[in-house]
Specification:
By secondary structure, the chain is an alpha/beta fold. It contains ten helices and nine strands. The chain has one domain: Alpha-Beta Barrel (TIM Barrel). A nine-stranded parallel beta sheet has the order 5-4-3-2-1-9-8-7-6, sandwiched between helices. The chain is globular and about 45 Å long.
Length: about 240
């Protein structure tokens, strides 16, 4: 898939699952389980031991999973990830040289940013989306709304503290997509290989995304793929 197609897949999903786990085996399990749940966009954080090899294995699996590299710190790290088959790059702060490298390679990139100045700089540098992180620490959905009002042309990914209780609020405030980590992949669920629990969490967040998009456009879903929607119950999922 080319850059335009990858970007469209990310926007259609509305969820970027951040896989930040203690081992490569955990990362493979988490990514494959999420894909089974209908969450195809996964970001393998560079803090995962053997992260580049994980990206390589997932990219070579033949599935329709969109595999990205997260917590990129420099161009060399970005190059290794792309060579391994990464479909997109994301950072936890604005690193202009990584954005420039991604543009030269014609690859989807969404850097982290926090202040309006950083968000504008990231967009002007050629980013496909801009990840506002850590959003929960600086006002949550109210901060997204404050950014989106004057910067509505910039697609924002809310990340850092997104959970079932606040995800809908981020979307109705104007976030284009959500970056979700532990709320989607609880550490104990990964460690105990509780695949049904993770799949249920995936389904819940997909329903939240669909509901949030309907709220924003007055009853017409943004996603081209119809999704059965229900308002999620916020109780934790127990392994059956």
């Amino acid at each position: 898939m080319n850059r335009k197609e990858i970007r469209a897949k990310i926007l259609d999903s509305g969820i970027v699952a951040c896989v930040r786990v203690p081992s490569a085996e955990d990362a493979l399990f988490a990514a494959e389980t999420l894909a089974d749940a209908g969450v195809p966009v996964v970001e393998i954080a560079m803090t995962v031991p053997g992260a580049v090899q994980v990206i390589s294995e997932l990219s070579a699996s033949g599935s329709e999973m969109i595999v990205g590299a997260g917590s990129i710190l420099d161009v060399e790290m970005a190059r290794r990830c792309l060579d391994a088959g990464a479909n997109f790059l994301t950072t936890d702060g604005l690193i202009p040289e990584v954005v420039d490298f991604a543009n030269r390679r014609d690859v989807v990139v969404f850097p982290g940013a926090l202040t309006p100045t950083e968000v504008i700089a990231a967009w002007r540098a050629g980013s496909d989306l801009v990840k506002v992180v850590p959003v929960a620490a600086v006002g949550g959905e109210n901060y997204i709304k404050a950014l989106q009002t004057p910067l509505s042309q910039i697609p924002l990914v809310a990340a850092g503290g997104v959970n079932q209780q606040n995800a809908l609020g981020y979307l109705t405030a104007g976030a284009t997509a959500l970056g979700i980590g532990q709320a989607l992949l609880p550490w104990e669920a990964v460690a105990l290989r509780q695949s049904s629990r993770i799949r249920e969490l995936g389904r819940r967040f997909l329903n939240i995304v669909s509901a949030g998009r309907k709220d924003r456009v007055g009853g017409t879903a943004v996603s081209e793929t119809p999704v059965r929607v229900h308002r999620p119950q916020f109780a934790e999922v127990a392994e059956r």
